Amino acid sequence: MGFVPSALDRSATTYVAGHRGLVGSAIWRHLDYSGFDQLVGRSSAELDLRDRAAVFAFFAQAKPAVVVLAAAKVGGIMANSTFPVDFLSENLRIQLNVMDAALEHGVERLLFLGSSCIYPKLAPQPIKEEYLLTGTLEPTNDAYAIAKIAGILQVQSVRKQYELPWISAMPTNLYGPGDNFSRQGSHVLPALIRRYDEARRDGASSVTNWGSGSPRREFLHVDDMAAACLHLLEHYDGPTQVNVGTGEDSTIKEIAEIVAAEVGYEGRVEWDTTKPDGTPRKLLDVTTLRESGWTPRIGLREGIASTVEWYRTHMDSLRT
Ligand SMILES: NC(=O)C1=CN([C@@H]2O[C@H](COP(=O)(O)OP(=O)(O)OC[C@H]3O[C@@H](n4cnc5c(N)ncnc54)[C@H](OP(=O)(O)O)[C@@H]3O)[C@@H](O)[C@H]2O)C=CC1
Ligand SMILES: C[C@H]1O[C@H](OP(=O)(O)OP(=O)(O)OC[C@H]2O[C@@H](n3cnc4c(=O)[nH]c(N)nc43)[C@H](O)[C@@H]2O)[C@@H](O)[C@@H](O)C1=O
């Protein structure tokens, strides 16, 4: 692992692809706060990243020097397992178009985002970066995983062939302001916050969560994720994707208990075991990130509490 000691140029044109999403919006806020004054973003309505010609035209016009690729088709366990070809095809096209255009236009610095769910389903725990491509994938998100693995390989191949210092980060499960709270498509934390808050509001006597509640998951607040992305861009220059997480996990049942306490829901909790559990555990080994000088700041209970507050303030204008 080689470390680039230099800070990024705060006045360079910096394109955050996906700047309205959970991760992209947090990265935008963090870059803005950190002094980047030439941030560029386009919504999917303004620029559909599946449209190759439009992407190349955008790069020719905007001429970004730095690209953070946080645009993707993203969803929870049910969305991934119900619409696998959308997750495969859209993500392959989005990342291929953005990275090909970035290469053609000589973009020096690019950060691509993988996901902890693309490691082998039964990888030894905690999962080290070197375990990628060493085993069979989790079937509920194998199509998405193959697309993401192709993205990581594209970054590594550009480094090899063109010697550009592009890098990939491998985040654990993320949550926070700007998350997708849709009933069927969301990840577990926003799903639980919405379900428990609606149950409290409606005086419901029980809620039903998905699966057995026994899988373990590691959660990182998206503001920490955004800080880690800038840290990596400024301190890491290596071909291997870098795990980004807390190094601690909990069962889904334990997470549900925290959400119930923070939301103020006191009714019964049922588990629908006809719904998939997904991978039993995917705890990241975060040694590389720690040794590069970065650790998360936002504790899980504190992060969930502030996300509940955010949800209550924004619930009328959220994605359905
Ligand atoms: N959320 C999580 O728990 C995790 C996320 N990640 C990774 O982080 C990245 C961002 O995820 P997240 O922020 O959660 O996802 P979101 O769904 O919150 O945001 C995705 C963003 O991508 C944009 N987008 C999607 N399709 C297109 C398209 N065809 N053209 C242009 N823009 C498009 C959307 O734009 P618009 O809003 O304008 O439609 C949206 O802003 C992804 O690469 C994901 O794999 C990794 C691990 C965990
Ligand atoms: C980030 C990651 O996200 C996805 O993987 P996942 O970690 O399995 O994601 P999840 O948040 O949807 O579920 C976590 C656990 O929670 C349980 N669970 C309970 N009740 C609800 C519920 O109401 N909704 C959801 N979604 N899950 C629930 C659910 O059964 C599972 O056991 C990948 O597809 C992949 O795309 C990816 O990148």
TrEMBL record:
Cross-referenced CDD domains, in alphabetical order?
Answer: GDP_FS_SDR_e
Query: Quick one: which residues bind substrate?
Result: 195, 210, 217, 277
The molecular function terms in GO held by this entry are: GDP-L-fucose synthase activity; isomerase activity; NADP+ binding
Q: Which UniProt keywords apply?
A: Isomerase, Multifunctional enzyme, NADP, Oxidoreductase
Query: What are the NAD-dependent epimerase/dehydratase domain coordinates in residue numbering?
Result: 15-245
Enzyme Commission number(s): 1.1.1.271
Give the catalysed reaction(s), semicolon-separated.
GDP-beta-L-fucose + NADP(+) = GDP-4-dehydro-alpha-D-rhamnose + NADPH + H(+)
* Broad class of enzyme this protein falls into: oxidoreductase
Q: Where does the record place the catalytic residues?
A: 144
Annotated NADP(+) binding lies at 18-24, 113-116, 148, 171-174, 187
The Swiss-Prot or TrEMBL record describes its family as follows:
Belongs to the NAD(P)-dependent epimerase/dehydratase family. Fucose synthase subfamily.
- The name under which this protein is listed is GDP-L-fucose synthase
Gene of this entry: fcl
